[in-house]
Amino acid sequence: MTLDPPWRPPAWELDPSQPLYEQIAHRIRVEIAAARLPKGARLPSVRDLAASLRVTPNTVMRAYAELEQDGLLETFRGQGTFVAREPGVEARARARIARQALEHVRRVAADLGMRVEDLLRLGAEEEGGDEDARSH
Description:
Layout: H1 20-33, H2 46-53, H3 57-69, E1 73-76, E2 80-83, H4 89-112, H5 116-135
Antiparallel strand pairs: 1-2
């Protein structure tokens, strides 16, 4: 835990059609997973982050609470909210992101009446086809 100035998030565009707290939690989770937000780093206060993102403090509180429940953040009364220092915090963040991505792929495959493997193969083929078309 460090009392250095709090981490400042990059410029984030939030999609008003999706729950804002989920988007904020996801963005912070990505920053932790990519080690751009290191263990022990102090996050902005709820009010400061809410003001910079133009959301209500309750929205940020809900995002912080979700991340705390996941073991990614810890809050110390009077000191602030910090990235958890336990080993494996980045791996836990990556695993959650991977599970969410896999669930999304499963939903898309089901919507299309396909198996996940077939959807992934099709996506890989299309990606390779796009590269071939660009290189010619």
